Amino acid sequence: MTTQTLTQLEQHELFLRRHIGPDAAEQQAMLNEIGAESLDDLTQQTVPEAIRLQRELSIGDSHSESEGLAYIRDIAAKNQVFKSYIGTGYYGTEVPNVILRNVLENPGWYTAYTPYQPEIAQGRLEAILNFQQVSMDLTGLDLASASLLDEATAAAEAMALAKRVSKAKKANIFFVADDVFPQTLDVVKTRAECFGFEVVVGPANEAVNYELFGALFQYTNRQGQVTDFTELFAALKDKKAVVAVAADIMSLVMLKSPGSMGADVVFGSAQRFGVPMGYGGPHAAFFVARDAHKRSMPGRLIGVSKDTRGNQALRMAMQTREQHIRREKANSNICTAQVLLANMASFYAVFHGPQGLKLIAERIHRFADLFAAGLQAKGIELVNDTWFDTVSFKGVDVAAIQARALAAQINLRYDDDGVVGVSFDETTTREDLTALFDAVLGCDHGQEVAALDAQVVAASRQSIPAELVRKDAILTHPTFNRYQSETEMMRYIKRLENKDLALNHSMISLGSCTMKLNAAVEMIPVSWPQFANMHPFCPLEQAAGYTQLIEELSTDLVDITGYDAVCIQPNSGAQGEYAGLLAIKKYHESRGEAHRNICLIPQSAHGTNPASAQLAGMKVVVTACDKEGNVDLDDLKAKAAEVADQLSCIMITYPSTHGVYEETVSEICDIVHQHGGQVYLDGANMNAQVGLTSPGFIGADVSHLNLHKTFAIPHGGGGPGMGPIGVKSHLAPFVAGHTLVKPGRESDNNGAVSAAPYGSASILPITWMYIKLLGTKGVTQATQVALLNANYIMKKLSNHYPVLYTGRNDRVAHECIIDLRPIKESSGVTEMDIAKRLNDYGFHAPTMSFPVAGTLMIEPTESESKVELDRFIEAMIAIRGEITQVEAGDWPSDNNPLHNAPHTMADIMDPAFEERPYSRETAVFPTTAVKENKFWPTVNRIDDVFGDRNLMCSCVPISDYE
Ligand SMILES: *Cc1c(COP(=O)(O)O)cnc(C)c1O
């Protein structure tokens, strides 16, 4: 019998004990190692006194997992899931259960990072390559990106691409057809304003009347009409305009491709390929262009290259980290994209195959035909005379229809002009159609599905004009034709998963990326229908659960950031930067200071900072860093004074990208404020702040939060993410709004930055769970243990590798940078060799060469236990030993385990291995820990240069594998 009280026994159940890796004894051992008495003592030593919060957060108590689930189940129950025919870019879909369970709910897929280390990411690279192939086949164009954030931002990217590549250099007009989705127009307008483009909106065929650099059309339009654009596009191309088309992915299965009509860019949402509506996201957008535009593509491309054995190997092509290299000249600021969702959509195509997709599309289309026939039999006037899935009609008693529909839990699209629209989807059944007739026609309508079907088949009605019916084959690649049974599909997914290193294998200490635990309990609500199956434009009353969740989350984020308000719209960190800079811009404009357009950015900033500043129409002025890695105050003062009345803002990161708490941060804020500028604080490093300090307290005006870093949303192999922004009250009136959903807080004239009002709403429950379960105590302790883990690694490695920067008392913040340049100098071993050698030891490399070339930035996070940290440390020390052998000349500099890393099974099976100066065991089983849990890279080191010179971004012919 224990003598512990009930309260003490209950403590044992708290989630924080599971989230935080090291237990109390391990924490104490590590504290001893680094010379601190307690977590609080370490905090005192590390975080500058002036910025240390003197209060506790008000999140509340810590909770157990079952308490958390019970509470969020109550919230979920407040969402009413109606049958949605709203369409407008979001459609019901059946997520194949084999994909739901083996991809969306599988940490092997959702906890991986962006494939910066392609040798241990060939699985998801193949899945994304499949996504690119699907995109190309369906659009009829030849170069696809690996996913954009949503359809509306893809439209804005298409506009920016048009400007870059159009030969109509003097033109400043971007034409948008007046029948595109309203949210698409909204996002395009916001972006165009920053670039200084003129957006002209009008009937599609009037585009030719303007001097324009590009034009945007929607196929099929928002009311459902299917139009042949061939002649219009030819006329526009004569004018050197770039033609962009927003298209519906499911319709493209049946319709002639926009590429074959002459479009230059085709994009759209891949949501209805098996990704739930999720109240707006996350979903992947596809984006496909002509090969000629490859250097101008936004976002990432996956390309085929070869490894050192000459085998096919996949990797991110060209634009890998393009913002880091091209900064404000980058094509876009897209960093985190929508990889997990792109993979789900590509698996959906793989699972159904071309035949299956065709049957799905034809069934959807048939329901539209039947519905139209039923309405026409009753003399109702249709707005469109061609359609794929959407039928719009008018001249009806809208109020009566709406009342009957709501009573039957049905949502339709109601336009301002008395037009009602119905979009069918994969989930529609015969019973649904009957219920729809009841709602639209009232009872006693006498429309019978079977009879209508016989009629429609007999009449062979051409609701898709004959010339617009697709005639070419799609998805002929073997990958889309061999996994139609569930067993085959399950094994294909598993085969790819096995090639990838994710958090379910070992720690991923990517500095700045914060790869912490994505707990199962946080993920569970995401799949619930009350969160998954809500349409983002449904009446607000139906979304009471989401409203409550978003309000509670906002309250906690306000508390955590020290700001006055948050805006939950941006769907990535970089989008948050853009949204925050827009708020600053509008604020200056509101004060008659529209001329303030210079953004100061320290040299060490993340590449998305300058890329976002450029998107927001600002001019970037770079400020220096001193040799300790801190912002050089003298240079900052000089530059701020120099540009003074033009100064819009500064973008800083805190703790700095160098992983230390700069003592001067408040002074930096003061200097910028004195010159009338605003302070944008990049919140990517919030994992070193939560509960200890905050951007608002430090003195900044606006920040984004990467909910997919600090707040436990998984990285998904390169997305999704969420980048809400926190703002001080004076900026609150200037955050993003939305044309269709107005909860009443935002000012009416603020444009949108994302397609959906709350971005990727369906992953917000993850962050809500993270914060609520940990509570005030847990989130604060998480930060403290993140500091402890980083300082422990720093201490243990510092005898073997030089640590580049430290702050007060020789402490680092939540990450530490080790300098490999001296090693390269003395041994020829590069940071790349060390990164790849870590793969042989079963680890993902830390962040390489950011923010300083030739370094590794290690961020262990609070979730890693001491055992795992020690394994990593052991690997790093063993690697240092290997480097010493190279330095000593024991091994030739071009033939050693580092230079040849990573090692594959093919290597050790190769008889020629005998000629190497090291053993097979050294190659693949360098430590006992590795023997017990071996991860096998599936390809050898990949040749980047070859891949870029011979750019190929489509599926590899199967013959090439043989
Ligand atoms: C990750 C990161 C970003 C960009 O966030 P995304 O969500 O990838 O767009 C910006 N700044 C810093 C310092 C980061 O680490």
Automatic annotation (TrEMBL):
Does the keyword field hold Oxidoreductase? yes
Q: Which GO terms describe its biological process?
A: glycine decarboxylation via glycine cleavage system
EC supergroup of this enzyme: oxidoreductase
What GO CC annotations are associated with the protein?
A: cytosol; glycine cleavage complex
Keywords, sorted A to Z: Oxidoreductase, Pyridoxal phosphate
Cofactor(s) this protein cannot do without: pyridoxal 5'-phosphate
Question: Under the GO molecular function aspect, what terms does this record hold?
Answer: glycine binding; glycine dehydrogenase (decarboxylating) activity; pyridoxal phosphate binding
Residue ranges of domain Glycine dehydrogenase C-terminal in the record: 782-903
Q: Which InterPro entries match?
A: GcvP, GDC-P_C, GDC-P_N, GDC_P, PyrdxlP-dep_Trfase, PyrdxlP-dep_Trfase_major, PyrdxlP-dep_Trfase_small
**Which residues are in the Glycine cleavage system P-protein N-terminal domain?**
17-438, 461-738
Q: Known EC number(s)?
A: 1.4.4.2
Tell me the residues on which N6-(pyridoxal phosphate)lysine occurs. Answer: 709
**Catalytic activity, as annotated:** N(6)-[(R)-lipoyl]-L-lysyl-[glycine-cleavage complex H protein] + glycine + H(+) = N(6)-[(R)-S(8)-aminomethyldihydrolipoyl]-L-lysyl-[glycine-cleavage complex H protein] + CO2
Q: How does it assemble?
A: The glycine cleavage system is composed of four proteins: P, T, L and H.
The UniProt function text for this chain reads:
The glycine cleavage system catalyzes the degradation of glycine. The P protein binds the alpha-amino group of glycine through its pyridoxal phosphate cofactor; CO(2) is released and the remaining methylamine moiety is then transferred to the lipoamide cofactor of the H protein.
> Which family, according to the similarity comment?
Belongs to the GcvP family.
Q: What is this protein called?
A: Glycine dehydrogenase (decarboxylating)
